[in-house]
Amino acid sequence: MEQRAVAPAPAVAASSGGRIELVDLCKRYGANEPPAVDHVNIDIEPGEFITLLGPAARERPRRST
Fold it and tell me: Residue 22 is part of which domain span?
């Protein structure tokens, strides 16, 4: 599969006293793939923890033995 560069989205991350602001965050894993994260805006205050979770469709199935 050919790897192509994808232009970065106009996301802005700014820090002010431990505060993080994400503005219009977009992420896709390939030029022809749908967005994994699409136009997210979030403020993270000092002491807060944020986790983005989604389906693990790209992982191969694993078998425990």
Answer: 12-44
